[in-house]
Write a structure and sequence with these properties.
By secondary structure, the protein is an alpha/beta fold. The protein contains 16 helices and 17 strands.
C-alpha cells in the first residue's frame, strides 16, 4: 500500500514550525508496511489544497491530510474537502456534545466557531477525537482512502493510533514489516559499504539495506517485508549475525541505543566508574553521558579544562608539557586523562583536546585536529584524529569518537 502525506499550513512553508507530524506518521505507517510515496506541504489556500488532492489520485492508495481543521477563518480544509468530494456540511451530534462537555469542564462559553467544529461532510466517516474538538474525517473515492486529521500533534497521533491504523488493519491494507537498526562508529560510510559489499549483494530478495550516516555514526537499517512478522524477524536477525562477524568492532548497539548507554552497561557489569575531562568538546561528552537515565551508577563527573590554567591547576598537566608540545598534543591529552582519573577517583577517564575551529589551526595542527586519551586500569592510550573545518561537526564527531575509543579500551581491558 502506498500513501501520501499532505500537510496544510503557511507556518510550515515559512519555516515558523518544523513539520514533525509527517516524520512521525511516516515512521508509524512504515512499521505497518505502508510505503510513503510522497510528502507534500501546501498553503492554507483552497486552490493549493485541491491541486494536491487531485495530484494524489491514481498515484497512491492512501492520502493523509493534516492541518486546517481549527475554528478560525483560515482553517479551510473541511470546506475544501466538501468541494472535492461533492458533499455538504452537516452537524455531527456526538462531536457537538463532546465539544460542549469540554467547554463546560473548562468553564468557558461555547461560541459559533466552536460549534461549527462539529460540522462534517455528509459523505465522510467521522473519526472521533477524544483529545480535541476537531474530529478526523475518512473518505473513500476512486479506489483511494482519504483521511483528514487535525494538525495538533497529540490529537493527530491519537487518531492515527486509535482510528486510522486499526481501520487499515481491519480492511487488510497493511502487511508485515520488520526493521532492525545496527549502530556503527569508526568506519566512514564509503569504507563501510566496501567492507560489507558482498553481504549486501547476497541479502534475501525481501530484505533491504539502508545507510543512514550522520556526524555521530553510521546507522545500517535492515528491513524485511512479507506476511509473517515472526518469520521476518528471524530472517533479519540471521543477517545481523552475519554483520556481527564482518564488522564486530564497528557495531556498538542497536535501535535507538546511544554509545553512552552501551558504555554504561559495560561499566555496570564490570563494576567500574568513569570520569571525563574535555577541552575542545566543552562538555558535549558529559552531556551525552548524562542523557542516559541512571548514569550516576557509573559516571562520577567531569572537568571542563578549556584554559591551560585549568589543565595545570586542576588536572596537574605539567607546565613543561604545555610549553614544549602545546595544549593540542598527545602528551597533554595523556596527562589530562591521567589527571582526571586521579582527581575524580574513577577507574576510567577520557580526555579530549583539539582545535574545533574555525580559527586556530596551523600547518602542523590544522583545524579539526583532536587528540583523545583514555586512562584505564593498566595504561593510558592516545589517538590523533583530524575531522575537518566545521566547528559543530568537529565537536559532534570528537564526542562520539571519544566514546567509541573509550568503549574499545574498556572491552580490551575487560578481556585481559
Amino acid at each position: 500500500m502506498k500513501a501520501e502525506i499532505i500537510t496544510i499550513g503557511d507556518e510550515i512553508l515559512i519555516g515558523q514550525i518544523v513539520d514533525t507530524n509527517s516524520a512521525w506518521m511516516a515512521e508509524q505507517f512504515n512499521i505497518h508496511g505502508i510505503e510513503i510515496y510522497q510528502i507534500t506541504s501546501v498553503h492554507d489556500s483552497r486552490e493549493h489544497i485541491l491541486e494536491a488532492l487531485k495530484n494524489a489520485v491514481g498515484k497512491v492508495d492512501l492520502v493523509v491530510v493534516t492541518g486546517g481543521l481549527g475554528p478560525t477563518k483560515d482553517d479551510i480544509t473541511k470546506k475544501t474537502l466538501c468541494e472535492f468530494f461533492g458533499s455538504e456540511l452537516v452537524m455531527h451530534e456526538p462531536t457537538l456534545e463532546h465539544i460542549k462537555n469540554r467547554f463546560v469542564k473548562r468553564n468557558i462559553d461555547i461560541n459559533k466557531l466552536n460549534r461549527d467544529q462539529a460540522l462534517v461532510p455528509d459523505n465522510s466517516t467521522v473519526l472521533f477525537n477524544l483529545l480535541g474538538s476537531a474530529p478526523g474525517l475518512w473518505f473513500e473515492s476512486n479506489n483511494t482512502i482519504f483521511v483528514s486529521l487535525p494538525g495538533v500533534p497529540f490529537e493527530m497521533k491519537y487518531l492515527v493510533e486509535n482510528e486510522v491504523l486499526p481501520r487499515l488493519v481491519k480492511i487488510g491494507k497493511t502487511k508485515a514489516i520488520y526493521h532492525k537498526t545496527i549502530l556503527t562508529q569508526g568506519i566512514p560510510e564509503s569504507m563501510l559499504a566496501m567492507k560489507i559489499e558482498d553481504f549486501e549483494n547476497n541479502l534475501p530478495a525481501n530484505v533491504k539495506l539502508a545507510y543512514l550516516p550522520s556526524p555521530m555514526a553510521v546507522r545500517l537499517r535492515l528491513s524485511a517485508m512479507g506476511t509473517d512478522k515472526t518469520e521476518l524477524e528471524k530472517l533479519v536477525e540471521t543477517e545481523v549475525i552475519k554483520l556481527q562477524q564482518i564488522i564486530p568492532d564497528a557495531i556498538y548497539g542497536y535501535g535507538n541505543e546511544t554509545m553512552a548507554e552501551g558504555i554504561g552497561k559495560l561499566l555496570v557489569s564490570s563494576r567500574k566508574t568513569l570520569g571525563v575531562t574535555e577541552s575542545c568538546t566543552g562538555g558535549f561528552i558529559s552531556h551525552l553521558i548524562t542523557s542516559v537515565p541512571g548514569c550516576s551508577a557509573w559516571y562520577k563527573g567531569s572537568v571542563i579544562a578549556y584554559a591551560n590554567e585549568v589543565k595545570q591547576n586542576v588536572l596537574g598537566v605539567q607546565t613543561e608539557t604545555l610549553e614544549k608540545f602545546g595544549a593540542v598534543s598527545e602528551e597533554t591529552a595523556r596527562e589530562m586523562a591521567a589527571g582526571a582519573r586521579k582527581v575524580l577517583h574513577v577507574n576510567f577517564a577520557v580526555a579530549t583536546t583539539g582545535i574545533a575551529g574555525p580559527d586556530g589551526g596551523t600547518p602542523d595542527k590544522p583545524v579539526g585536529t583532536v587528540w583523545i586519551a583514555v586512562a584505564g586500569l593498566n595504561a593510558t592510550v592516545t589517538q590523533k584524529f583530524v575531522f575537518g573545518d566545521n566547528r559543530e561537526r568537529n565537536i559532534l564527531r570528537s564526542g562520539q569518537t571519544a566514546l567509541q575509543f573509550l568503549r574499545q579500551i574498556i572491552l580490551e581491558e575487560s578481556a585481559r
